[in-house]
């Protein structure tokens, strides 16, 4: 913990950057030596802004006596240039489009680079994770589960690793998938998943808190895993050896107050050891999507399942205050229960440049029928217009 | 339920037959039409003895109006002759050698035919049961588990069926195994297990409540299963499809207040469906013997495990009143916690005909070192003598 101050401010009430200069300062502070997620929040709170914190930084030390060192402004410029080239945008802690569940963990990343549809992270997210050296049964199980959950409107979150993660992402490309990378968004690991990552950036969402250009190393993975579980209402462990890294994800998820679930396996199969251990420790046993939803408190009927997606009655009268459109996401605010009002989400996906209905359907993170209904409602109330050719735009 | 009377008497205080004539009457009453285990107890309690109940029987009807019909005395003679030819003996409800845990179920068999070492049923018994069409992994798991549990002094109880049961019996022949048959002791099913049954009669214990000569039919199996669980402190389900017969055993075990445990398996393997369902319903997850003992409340240390076997200090001053030696078992009294004082058990295994130390070690149902210590103690106190050649006999 790098925080020189405590207690930490409520991340939900954190004020995000409102200008390009502020974004630059946030990024520079976040990239400064010995400034971690907790330290970032503490510094900004103490000094009132990232710029002020950067000025004060050379005179400060961490609780353990280490010196802070502001990042070079040029390095931040370089990172912003890489982002522009890659089409990546920043999600900033406190901004309405920042994933609400993630903001609730003890150490949310102050900044996340995103490629794809940030709205996905505001839907009902479920992490499906497990062993890299998964068996074919394990991979099949991950695919079945992710497909079932996707079909019920849940977004699948995983870490783009070989094995279970890859299987879970592949089948949920159409329904909604989020990959959290350990290194920079432009440093996909493993390299064999470069094409999958590209598909996810087009149809799903790639996220990373690491600086662009950063190669992933072993120290990045536990930090990445806290984001996987932090985004998710539940973490389902599909196949994992005893004492494997996946158990760390499970522990982090428990510390974050998230549901931990596991798929059982034969005790004679070492790749089931971690799952069986979790089950003995009280994790919910998962055979199929019904079990996941039951553990999440669903009654298991379609009526109740659909009710999870908020209907039009939940939409506020005024659209939320947007973050800086040029850099930050624009997928509408996330609510703490992981379900942003759908009308707001759909509206936030639109601008004065025409967007195709297909894109909105893909990015809204909700069942298509619900999204179509929301679009219809926005058209009826005059907030959205359909241009010749079908493109959707915000009304003036 | 055939009981014309209620409430039923405490089976632990039930008076067993004390003569050959009484044994004959018990067997005849038990074999009478429409007299089930509960009816047997109610009738003997109401009329004071099996003989009196048999006299009254023609004038009585069951609660549902069915007529009782006393069995033909000749059929009982035939059954007793078959028993003598087979070397089977009767364990009678209320007798000290009747398995104490079994006596506590709601409908204990009034009579059990036994071949082998009845003392085994008084040790710590654990049922290992599962699918007949088990996978090789399932059979391997059953064998590993039964072997581990046997090595820790537990007796393995199962149903001699193909698959899981067979695997569990085979590996526990040396440490202690009990097979409960659905049909008569002389009608081993499946036939392919005839040799295994013979080995069990020599090294373990074969039990059945069915009349000798009775072919097993489907209606016998659930009744047999209640005995498998009734004898046992815990029932471990190793591999079982969803909605299979093994789940009935699990339900019976729960109704009997016994621990129900299950070995997990992949949800993609239908043969794990029953186990995984039980696990979701709260059964303890079993990976190895440690898990079984932990669920039974063992702290997992050798010291505590050995303490389960009562030491010499538990032995009563006087040997228990024996049942009729010619027909009934003679393995000493069972205590309700499933652990008969070892000295008593060992003494009950001896007679005035020399027995080999090996046989006693095999039949006592306790770790060999403990049995040797008990034999030594009995020799020191003069209750047992060692004949030239090593045979052990009761002292005059």
From TrEMBL, chains A, B:
**Which residue ranges are recorded for the region named Disordered?**
310-331
Q: Output the InterPro entries linked to this UniProt entry.
A: DprA, DprA_WH, DrpA_SLOG, WH-like_DNA-bd_sf
Q: Tell me the superkingdom of the source.
A: Bacteria
What GO terms describe the biological role, i.e. biological process, of this protein?
Answer: DNA-mediated transformation
Q: Where is the DprA winged helix domain?
A: 336-390
Q: Which residues form the Smf/DprA SLOG domain?
A: 90-295
Query: Which PANTHER family is this protein grouped with?
Result: PROTEIN SMF
What is the similarity comment for this entry?
Answer: Belongs to the DprA/Smf family.
**Protein's name in the database:** DNA-protecting protein DprA
Origin organism is Paroceanicella profunda
